[in-house]
Amino acid sequence: MAIIPELQELITQLTEECERLTMEDIQVYDVKGLTSLTDAVIIATATHGLQLDAARRSLSVLAKQAGYMVQNRTEDYSEGWLVLDCSDLVIHVFIEEKRDLYDIDSIMNALLHSRSLPSQPEEDLDGEDGEELSEQDLEEILDQLTEEETQEFIKILETEEDKNK
Asked: Is 26 part of a structural domain of the chain?
């Protein structure tokens, strides 16, 4: 599935703004049709906290100008992780150590890899060879989050659940 042209134009503007702000390792992931959460994800690395603040301001303005409302914007990104949720697009800006810690790039790449796998009946995914996260795997990931990050994650999930009702 392809991203709609308006969203693709916004993604281009946002990545150009990240470059203007001298962010590093800017990645765009087209996950349309692979998850119900979003159609695209942008991940970038900031080298210092001032870039996180600049990114919050300028990326929010660009999204708003394009007609996308920023939902669940992290107000406190002092821990080195800024999230801007625009429904069809989620933007993550990390300082390098947080990007390495959470390794969302690997999750996105695994998700994209699943696009190229042949379809399997649902019962095949429940076995040991399935690629779904087990409850234990999820608990281990959640144990690594700070209390604030866990609460933000829960808010995002609740918002998505409300949208799907």
From this structure: yes
Q: pLDDT tens digit string along 14-23?
A: 999 999 999 9
**Do 95 and 46 meet the contact criterion of CB atoms below 8 Å apart?**
yes
Q: How many DSSP H helices and E strands does the chain contain?
A: 6, 4
Helix, strand or coil for residue 46? strand
Residue 157 placed within a domain: no
CA atoms within 13 A on the CB side of 59: 34
Give me the sign of the Cα torsion angle 15, 21, 26, 29: negative
Position of tokens 């692979």? 34
- Phi/psi at 42 (5° precision): -115, 135
What CATH number is associated with residue 29?
A: 3.30.460.10
Tens of pLDDT, residue by residue over 81-111, are: 999 998 899 999 999 999 999 999 988 888 8
